[in-house]
Design a protein that fits this description.
Helix content: 25-40%
Number of strands: 11
Number of domains: 2
Strand order of the largest sheet: 6-7-8-9-10-11
Distance between the termini: 91 Å
Order of helices and strands: HEEEEEHEHHEEEEE
Radius of gyration: 31 Å
Structural class: alpha+beta
Shape: globular
Strand content: 35-45%
Oligomer: single chain
Number of helices: 4
Length: 247
């Protein structure tokens, strides 16, 4: 009887030790798998560093507000960006709506902060316009330049005023409203627009008044609102006091 009890006790100890060993091995295998997966991800990034991708996209704008300048474009109706070397591409004068062929390559960037963290992002290495958009065609149509005036004192920079000017041109070039089309159909019409700050539903906008500059008065034919946060253009529906997204 005593020998039986000792045998059962010994069997129990061996069983527990085997289970602990298996658990340890399983945890070790899981850890190794996670490490290998991370290495594979890193190797995949490194492998893509020298690969050149070619895409056809629609130009939106350039953004100089970050450590790296960015070219913003639309692809499949989704807005994306790529790092843009201003000095390398300074001769390229694109307008919103132009169709571009871009070549990009994954390369390193350094994120500002403690130690400048290493990361990877797509860099633009080559770009060319393959089709002129409506804004480019509008600019090349030998129209008199637009005029504008500020209804109140503002500290707008020259760069921001140029952005507003280009946004108004983009609207005129792409609008489908009959009154707008009639106005711009006569290339000799002198168009002037006003710029003022406005607040609607606790949001800040630029309010733009588009007018025909007649000899003795201004004839306003359209109001626009530009969202200051994201630069989205809205048409103002006067009868319904609504903002209609302009795309």
């Amino acid at each position: 009887m005593k020998n039986s009890i000792l045998f059962l006790l010994l069997l129990s100890i061996i069983s527990c030790h085997t289970k602990e060993t298996n658990d340890t091995n399983q945890k070790k295998e899981l850890t190794i798998d996670a490490t290998q997966t991370k290495k594979l991800e890193n190797n995949k990034t490194i492998a893509n560093l020298n690969k050149i991708k070619t895409d056809t996209v629609t130009f939106v704008s350039l953004n100089f507000d970050f450590d790296y300048s960015q070219l913003i474009f639309k692809k499949n109706s989704k807005e994306e960006s790529v790092i843009y070397d201003l000095f390398q591409n300074k001769k390229n004068n694109f307008n919103r709506g132009d169709i571009l062929e871009i070549k990009t390559k994954l390369d390193t960037i350094y994120i500002a902060g403690d130690g400048e963290t290493l990361d990877y992002s797509d860099w633009l290495i080559e770009v060319r316009r393959i089709k002129e958009g409506k804004l480019t065609l509008y600019k090349n149509s030998n129209r008199p330049p637009l005029k504008y005036f500020l209804t109140e004192e503002n500290d707008f920079s020259e760069t921001y005023l140029n952005f507003i000017y280009s946004s108004v041109e983009y609207y005129l070039a792409n609008s489908k409203k009959e009154l707008v089309l009639t106005t711009i159909d006569n290339k000799n019409n002198s168009i002037i627009f006003s710029i003022e700050n406005s607040v609607r539903d606790n949001k800040n906008y630029l309010m733009i008044g588009l007018s025909n500059d007649l000899e003795d008065h201004l004839a306003t034919f359209q109001w626009l609102f530009i969202d200051i946060e994201n630069n989205t253009i809205y048409e103002y529906d006067l009868p319904n006091d609504e903002l209609i997204l302009f795309e």
